[in-house]
Amino acid sequence: MKSFNKVYGFNINPDLYLYLNETGFEQTMQLTEGQILLFDGHSMIDNWRTLGVNWLIDEHDINAGLQIPDIAGLGATSYVLSKEVKAIMEPNLGHNVEYLKCDLQGETWYALNLVGFEDALNHELTEHNYNKRGEIKMIKPFKRLVIDKSKVENTALFRTKETGLSYITTDAENSFYSLIKENNLTGIDFHEIEAI
Q1: I need a labelling partner for 131 at 20 to 30 A (CA). Which of 86, 90, 119, 185 fits?
Q2: pLDDT digits (tens, 9 = 90+) for 153-165
Q3: What pLDDT is stored for residue 92 in this prediction?
Q4: How far apart are CA 149 and CA 157, in angstroms?
C-alpha cells in the first residue's frame, strides 16, 4: 500500500461542465433487453457493448458557457474519460478498474467502472444522518464520514459499501486525485473526507 495523508470524495461540477447522457437509442435498447446499466461494483466488461453517448444540453445550458471536460459525468454516479485521460489513468489506478468503451459522436471515450468495495470506514467515528422515521437519509447519509487509513487497500481509487456508488481517492502518488492535479485535468471537484 502506498502512503497517503488525505482522502477525497469527488463529483462533477454541473455549473461548469457538460454532462453526458446515453443516446435515445441506447436507452431504448436497454429497456427492450432488460439490461439497464448499473455501475454498482460488479464487473461489466464481459457483457459490455460500446455505449452511445451525447452531451446533455437543454435550452438552459445553451447560454450557460458550460465547458467540455476531460472527465465527464454520465448520470449522477458514473464518470467517462476521454481517451487521453484513459492513457494517463490506466497504468496507475489498479486492476479493480474497468474502462468500458463509449462512442461520443464518433469519438472514443471510456466509462470508468470500479469493481468491488473496501471495508475502509471507521464505524466508531462515522455518524449517520437519520430522517424522521429513523432511517438513514438517502441524499446525505452522513453527519460525519471517517475513513480508516489503515484499511485502505487501493489508494488510487476505491469505494465502500456504506458510501454506495461514490468513489473515493487519496493523495498518494499516482492516485486518481494526484494524476488529475498533476495533469491539470478538468471536470472533477474534490472534497476532503476525514481520515484517521
Answers
A1: 119
A2: 999 999 998 887 7
A3: 96
A4: 13
Round to whole Å and give the CA distance between 135 and 93: 35
Q: Nine-digit cell at 148?
A: 480508516
Q: Are strands 188-195 and 146-147 parallel, antiparallel or unpaired?
A: parallel
Please state, in angstroms and rounded to a whole number, the distance separating the CA atoms of residues 13 and 98: 23
Q: Is residue 26's pLDDT more than 90?
A: no
Taking alpha carbons only, the member of 114, 108, 125 closest to residue 40 is 114
CB 99 within 8 A of CB 49: no
Counting every residue written for the chain, the total comes to 196
* Exposed/middle/buried for residue 12 (C-beta within 10 Å: 0-12, 13-18, 19+): buried
